[in-house]
Amino acid sequence: MSKRKRPSPDQKELCQRFKESLDFLGLTPASAYQKLGYTTPATIYTINAGRCLPDMTKLIALSRLKTPEGRRINIDWLVTGTGPKAYPAPEKETSEIEALLSFTAKEKLDAVAVLLGKK
Fold it and tell me: Are 46 and 90 in contact (CB under 8 A)?
């Protein structure tokens, strides 16, 4: 009979930061599992309990989610525990620009990107 390996302190800390991130974003396992690409909330419960680790794609997905105020989790903090937990909410001006750009035709945005050397 094989022994189950105990999670290392680093693994436990990563799982704790994952759970803290969900709490910060106002998400429960039941509300987060689909947003992160899991098929059921059971995996999130298992991660929160420290019994398995999330893969990097799920951590990246978690870092892209926003609070109602627009704050996001800092991926560096999530993975390593260093730096601030979250980025500040974007300034109103940035949000207004994003709103205006959302109504701009994709072709025009692509043309601007070419002019700026981004494509």
Answer: no
